[in-house]
Design goal:
homotetramer; 219 residues; mainly alpha; 10 helices; DNA-binding
Chain lengths: 219, 219, 219, 219
DNA sequence: TATGAATGAGACTTCATTCAT
DNA sequence: GATGAATGAAGTCTCATTCAT
């Protein structure tokens, strides 16, 4: 998303550690996003103000508006940042090694990872409620990216189904499991632990109904 | 079902300013709620204005504030109206006759009913996204009521589990299935139909894992 | 434009000198307009601020926006106020007595009156430059009203022409003479006096060319 | 014709930052002016932005500010460009050949030329409304140049008057006729044609009142 | 010299809520 | 009780201009 290779100029020599302009901008943008996230979480999107965000990030308000056309764009950028981050995590589950695990184990690992993710990013919840409410299309788009990734993973676990089946399964899993993780992330630790087990049970039994007895569905 | 003491106001959840006692008042309040719902749906909660709502409902703004202490109270009242409505529907599923159905049939009937509900109330979605974002406690409280109802139903279907199990199962079902219905309600008709089948499969397999092989969980 | 008869209620009795609400509003609106005019004159329309206008008029900014949807509406209201005022003045020139004057005298009187008007309303200039630049349609509309009045007057001075002639003559007179008065109003007193004579000469010779040499009547 | 000392900046009228000395610079400046004119016409002076003008002219904003000290200077430069252009046209009317024409013919020719000018420069109108509103002194100064030229022409048409007479006549003609042309330039073609005739009638009768019966004014 | 990212004061406007009538 | 004009804090966003590179 943002240029991350150290700044080579076109002559091939590494002149500086990073192109200072880009590095400085990148740092600023990220600081703005961090601050915005904090504010959105603490006061809600509607109550948070661009002025305060700029002040907290120690950038002039004008600079903020140079990177984000309006308040909504900040929220959207946060959503994208999280989606990118989450897709990154999912990448781990596409290695042959992990894909070779028995289904129950795979599901356990995946849901543990997701749980971790939500634990590490307590703001995710707050951000996406607002995204859902104020920019449903963006919310859809973000979920779609996860669903796509999931569509690519599923056939590697079990390739006995039709392509369209994978699409619907991915959709259902991402939406249901995702929501449960999201709900879980707002609960007390004990309930949270228990919910993780339930998420795994829900996911496993749903997948198993497809992978185990395909041809003889009971549904 | 709905709190009827008039002026409790400190606890955050109960915030009814005045109970409409007479038929005329009741009609007015309902008109206000209908209009508010329309406005919230079309422009979003934040963009809708109390002035416009009052105007559309042909009620002086002052009168509106006699029934609702503030803008949020209108949203909350809408949420309660829907929750009451949904709990009403669930009552049908507590008759001995229906409870005697085989689990798969019961699940099918229940999810069909829920699907119907969302189809008949296209505004539900819009209302609850806003509730979720701006008054999470209310959202929780509304869900809790459904979960409670569900906790009462489950043992009647199969009484082999511990009480706490029913609580967690009800929680997971209401959250996951509820969310899927909610997602489904925003989709194209074909996908929607297919999603209903998936919801049933998800719910059935999850429940079945408890009811069928209790004592030999795989999870 | 604004209710000016003293406030009679529907029962026919004069209860108060004026309906207090209307009177108060009317006073406020006029105070706002006066202050706005002053500000527009002193700093120009673009530089003047609604906040300052409200402050100077000692009304809350919100009240200002209750009467004027936006800054431009204030300018427009000022333009209308002047146009109404000027049409009022023109009414004097529609009495049979004045219309019976010889053409040169009529022109002299009319231009003197116009000169007076500009002398009494030094802000007219500043207001209409801004109107012209930022809302040409309004400027046109205001002029059109004067032109219409003029179209009604001309045949009473001399009825020998076709109706369409009066239209074009009125148009030319209002635009040319109006502009000259307007230019004149910004000049030093001596030049201003001399310009008044020139305006009269210009108008008289133009009108005379129509009224004198077809059929040769001069008034 | 155009001030050529580079940096005079105190007197308000002369505000040229840098004289474009080379052909390439000259082309750039002209492109900027063309683009600015387009922007001012389409959106109005206030709404147009220097950034956009620079972008449209494919010039870095910094370069723009090397040629124009501020936004107003761009408008002023446009006004000067038009005034120079118009004075150029007037030069044709100072040849002995044309000056020898009978007054009515001379007036007809001159007004036709002016009409042409406005037809060829549809932006003139838009530019000068803004100049009038935001920098009246410049507007005066531009008109003064035309008036001066006119003062030189008049005695060549008829030398029977006092020098001061020519000054006032030129002033009135330029202001009145100029404004009528300006008004006319915004009208529909048919009206515009008719207005040209009226302008000629107005100008001729006014001039004739001086040249024909000087010494026996009726005014 | 040329560039264009950075600046930040301040403009306009909204709207939930009150309270005098 | 009913009404709706009045309030004013505070929000978002713009843009002419500068100056470090």
């Amino acid at each position: 998303m943002v240029e991350s290779t150290p700044g080579k100029t076109s002559d091939g020599l590494v002149r500086r550690w990073r192109k200072p302009k880009q590095a400085r901008s990148w740092a600023r943008v990220n600081r703005m996003l961090d601050v915005a996230e904090k504010n959105f979480m603490e006061q809600g999107y509607a109550a948070a103000t661009t002025k305060q965000i700029a002040a907290d990030a120690e950038v002039p308000i004008g600079s903020l508006y140079q990177f984000f056309p309006d308040k909504a764009a900040i929220l959207q950028a946060l959503a994208e940042r999280y989606t990118d981050l989450f897709k990154e995590r999912l990448r781990l589950f596409q290695s042959d090694e992990v894909l070779a695990l028995p289904l129950p184990d795979y599901v356990v690992r995946l849901t543990q990872e997701a749980d971790c993710f939500f634990r590490e990013h307590p703001a995710y919840r707050a951000i996406f409620v607002e995204v859902m409410a104020t920019m449903p299309e963006t919310d859809e788009a973000m979920d779609d990216q996860i669903i796509q990734t999931c569509i690519e993973i599923l056939p590697k676990l079990n390739d006995s189904l039709e392509p369209t089946e994978y699409e619907i399964i991915a959709f259902v899993l991402v939406k249901a499991i995702g929501h449960l993780h999201w709900v879980s992330s707002g609960q007390a630790p004990e309930l949270r632990e228990r919910l993780l087990l339930e998420i795994q049970r829900l996911a496993f039994n749903y997948l198993n109904s497809y992978f185990h007895d395909e041809g003889s569905e009971n549904n």
